[in-house]
Design brief:
25% helix, alpha/beta, seven-stranded mixed β-sheet, 204 residues, Lysozyme-like
Amino acid sequence: MIAGNRARLRFPSLFRHRMSIPIHDQLLPYVTQLPERPAEAVTLVVIHCTELPDLATAREYGEKVLYDSGAGNSGHYYIDRDGATYRYVPGTRIAHHVRGRNAESIGIELVNSGRYPNWFDSRQQIMREPYTDAQITALRELLTMLRETFPNLRHIAGHEDLDTAMVPASDDASRQVSRKLDPGIRFPWNEVLEGSRLERLTRR
Protein backbone atom coordinates (compact mmCIF):
# COMPACT_ATOMS: atom_id res chain seq x y z
CA MET A 1 0.00 0.00 0.00
CA ILE A 2 1.48 3.39 -0.96
CA ALA A 3 1.86 6.18 1.59
CA GLY A 4 -0.95 8.29 0.11
CA ASN A 5 -3.44 5.44 0.51
CA ARG A 6 -2.35 4.88 4.11
CA ALA A 7 -3.01 8.53 4.88
CA ARG A 8 -6.46 8.33 3.31
CA LEU A 9 -7.32 5.34 5.53
CA ARG A 10 -6.07 7.09 8.67
CA PHE A 11 -7.64 10.49 7.94
CA PRO A 12 -10.61 9.88 5.63
CA SER A 13 -12.56 13.03 6.55
CA LEU A 14 -9.57 15.26 5.78
CA PHE A 15 -9.16 13.82 2.29
CA ARG A 16 -12.90 13.90 1.59
CA HIS A 17 -12.97 17.60 2.35
CA ARG A 18 -9.87 18.40 0.34
CA MET A 19 -11.42 16.82 -2.71
CA SER A 20 -14.69 18.79 -2.27
CA ILE A 21 -13.20 22.09 -3.45
CA PRO A 22 -11.49 21.96 -6.83
CA ILE A 23 -8.48 24.26 -7.02
CA HIS A 24 -7.45 25.33 -10.49
CA ASP A 25 -3.70 25.86 -10.58
CA GLN A 26 -2.79 28.83 -12.77
CA LEU A 27 0.57 29.77 -11.32
CA LEU A 28 1.95 33.19 -12.17
CA PRO A 29 4.93 33.28 -14.56
CA TYR A 30 7.24 34.66 -11.88
CA VAL A 31 6.20 32.31 -9.08
CA THR A 32 9.67 30.76 -8.77
CA GLN A 33 11.07 34.24 -8.06
CA LEU A 34 9.00 34.49 -4.88
CA PRO A 35 10.73 33.48 -1.61
CA GLU A 36 9.91 30.06 -0.20
CA ARG A 37 8.75 29.45 3.37
CA PRO A 38 7.73 26.43 5.45
CA ALA A 39 4.03 25.73 5.96
CA GLU A 40 4.54 26.40 9.68
CA ALA A 41 5.33 30.06 8.94
CA VAL A 42 1.76 30.82 7.87
CA THR A 43 -0.34 32.24 10.72
CA LEU A 44 -2.73 34.63 8.95
CA VAL A 45 -5.19 34.78 6.06
CA VAL A 46 -5.91 38.19 4.52
CA ILE A 47 -9.19 38.70 2.66
CA HIS A 48 -9.07 41.02 -0.34
CA CYS A 49 -11.34 41.93 -3.18
CA THR A 50 -9.85 42.60 -6.58
CA GLU A 51 -11.57 45.98 -7.10
CA LEU A 52 -11.53 45.11 -10.79
CA PRO A 53 -14.31 44.15 -13.21
CA ASP A 54 -13.41 40.49 -13.76
CA LEU A 55 -10.90 37.71 -13.17
CA ALA A 56 -9.15 38.25 -16.50
CA THR A 57 -8.29 41.83 -15.54
CA ALA A 58 -7.11 40.68 -12.11
CA ARG A 59 -4.82 38.19 -13.83
CA GLU A 60 -3.35 40.96 -15.98
CA TYR A 61 -2.62 43.02 -12.88
CA GLY A 62 -1.12 40.02 -11.11
CA GLU A 63 1.26 39.26 -13.97
CA LYS A 64 2.72 42.78 -14.07
CA VAL A 65 6.35 42.82 -12.94
CA LEU A 66 6.81 45.55 -10.33
CA TYR A 67 9.98 44.57 -8.44
CA ASP A 68 13.64 44.04 -9.30
CA SER A 69 13.20 40.38 -8.40
CA GLY A 70 10.92 39.98 -11.40
CA ALA A 71 7.78 39.57 -9.26
CA GLY A 72 4.60 41.61 -8.93
CA ASN A 73 1.61 42.06 -6.62
CA SER A 74 -0.81 39.15 -6.26
CA GLY A 75 -2.87 37.10 -3.86
CA HIS A 76 -2.33 33.37 -3.49
CA TYR A 77 -5.92 32.38 -4.27
CA TYR A 78 -8.64 34.00 -6.40
CA ILE A 79 -12.36 33.21 -6.14
CA ASP A 80 -14.50 34.20 -9.12
CA ARG A 81 -18.15 35.22 -8.87
CA ASP A 82 -19.28 31.68 -9.75
CA GLY A 83 -17.21 30.23 -6.90
CA ALA A 84 -14.44 28.85 -9.10
CA THR A 85 -11.19 28.95 -7.14
CA TYR A 86 -7.76 29.53 -8.64
CA ARG A 87 -4.29 29.26 -7.16
CA TYR A 88 -1.83 31.80 -8.55
CA VAL A 89 0.84 31.33 -5.88
CA PRO A 90 1.46 28.28 -3.64
CA GLY A 91 1.01 28.95 0.05
CA THR A 92 4.62 27.96 0.65
CA ARG A 93 5.82 31.02 -1.27
CA ILE A 94 5.58 34.63 -0.11
CA ALA A 95 3.33 36.75 -2.34
CA HIS A 96 3.15 40.55 -2.35
CA HIS A 97 -0.42 41.27 -1.28
CA VAL A 98 -0.41 43.29 1.97
CA ARG A 99 1.99 45.82 3.46
CA GLY A 100 4.09 44.48 6.31
CA ARG A 101 2.44 41.05 6.71
CA ASN A 102 3.41 39.10 3.60
CA ALA A 103 5.91 36.79 5.31
CA GLU A 104 3.31 35.11 7.53
CA SER A 105 0.13 35.41 5.48
CA ILE A 106 -1.89 33.97 2.62
CA GLY A 107 -3.88 36.38 0.48
CA ILE A 108 -7.31 35.43 -0.86
CA GLU A 109 -8.81 37.68 -3.54
CA LEU A 110 -12.54 37.66 -4.29
CA VAL A 111 -13.51 39.04 -7.68
CA ASN A 112 -15.55 42.16 -6.96
CA SER A 113 -15.62 45.58 -8.62
CA GLY A 114 -15.19 47.50 -5.35
CA ARG A 115 -14.53 51.15 -6.18
CA TYR A 116 -13.41 50.44 -9.76
CA PRO A 117 -12.48 52.42 -11.78
CA ASN A 118 -12.37 55.52 -9.53
CA TRP A 119 -10.66 53.97 -6.52
CA PHE A 120 -9.65 57.23 -4.87
CA ASP A 121 -12.56 59.50 -5.85
CA SER A 122 -13.89 60.87 -2.56
CA ARG A 123 -17.44 60.67 -3.94
CA GLN A 124 -17.22 56.93 -4.64
CA GLN A 125 -15.90 55.36 -1.46
CA ILE A 126 -18.71 52.86 -0.89
CA MET A 127 -18.19 49.24 -1.95
CA ARG A 128 -21.57 48.51 -3.52
CA GLU A 129 -21.26 45.11 -5.20
CA PRO A 130 -22.40 42.21 -2.99
CA TYR A 131 -20.38 39.02 -2.80
CA THR A 132 -22.12 36.01 -4.32
CA ASP A 133 -23.30 33.01 -2.34
CA ALA A 134 -21.03 30.85 -4.50
CA GLN A 135 -18.01 32.96 -3.53
CA ILE A 136 -18.73 32.76 0.18
CA THR A 137 -19.32 29.00 0.06
CA ALA A 138 -16.06 28.51 -1.81
CA LEU A 139 -14.22 30.79 0.61
CA ARG A 140 -15.45 28.85 3.63
CA GLU A 141 -14.32 25.58 2.08
CA LEU A 142 -10.97 27.06 1.15
CA LEU A 143 -10.42 28.33 4.69
CA THR A 144 -11.09 24.85 6.06
CA MET A 145 -8.62 23.37 3.61
CA LEU A 146 -6.00 25.94 4.57
CA ARG A 147 -6.48 25.22 8.27
CA GLU A 148 -5.72 21.56 7.54
CA THR A 149 -2.66 22.40 5.45
CA PHE A 150 -1.02 25.13 7.54
CA PRO A 151 -0.78 23.98 11.17
CA ASN A 152 -0.20 27.41 12.74
CA LEU A 153 -2.92 29.27 10.86
CA ARG A 154 -4.98 31.00 13.55
CA HIS A 155 -5.95 34.48 12.35
CA ILE A 156 -7.88 36.19 9.58
CA ALA A 157 -8.14 39.87 8.64
CA GLY A 158 -9.46 42.15 5.96
CA HIS A 159 -6.99 44.05 3.82
CA GLU A 160 -8.54 47.26 5.16
CA ASP A 161 -7.74 46.19 8.74
CA LEU A 162 -4.02 45.86 8.05
CA ASP A 163 -3.35 48.60 5.51
CA THR A 164 -4.84 51.73 7.07
CA ALA A 165 -2.92 54.31 5.04
CA MET A 166 -4.70 57.37 3.67
CA VAL A 167 -4.00 58.99 0.30
CA PRO A 168 -5.11 62.24 -1.37
CA ALA A 169 -8.44 61.92 -3.17
CA SER A 170 -8.18 61.87 -6.96
CA ASP A 171 -10.94 64.47 -7.31
CA ASP A 172 -9.75 66.78 -4.54
CA ALA A 173 -6.17 66.53 -3.26
CA SER A 174 -7.12 68.41 -0.10
CA ARG A 175 -9.22 65.44 1.00
CA GLN A 176 -7.96 62.04 2.19
CA VAL A 177 -9.41 58.63 1.37
CA SER A 178 -8.47 55.11 2.43
CA ARG A 179 -5.88 53.42 0.28
CA LYS A 180 -7.58 50.09 0.93
CA LEU A 181 -11.22 49.38 1.77
CA ASP A 182 -11.48 45.73 0.86
CA PRO A 183 -13.26 43.50 1.44
CA GLY A 184 -15.63 46.30 2.54
CA ILE A 185 -19.02 46.64 4.16
CA ARG A 186 -20.75 44.06 1.93
CA PHE A 187 -18.49 41.25 3.12
CA PRO A 188 -20.39 38.82 5.43
CA TRP A 189 -17.85 38.43 8.21
CA ASN A 190 -20.18 36.60 10.61
CA GLU A 191 -20.99 33.94 8.03
CA VAL A 192 -17.36 33.47 7.04
CA LEU A 193 -16.09 33.28 10.61
CA GLU A 194 -18.72 30.80 11.79
CA GLY A 195 -17.04 27.44 12.31
CA SER A 196 -13.75 28.62 10.81
CA ARG A 197 -11.78 28.43 14.08
CA LEU A 198 -10.02 31.60 12.98
CA GLU A 199 -9.78 34.76 15.07
CA ARG A 200 -10.35 38.02 13.23
CA LEU A 201 -7.78 40.77 13.56
CA THR A 202 -9.46 44.16 13.31
CA ARG A 203 -8.26 47.69 12.72
CA ARG A 204 -6.75 49.27 15.83
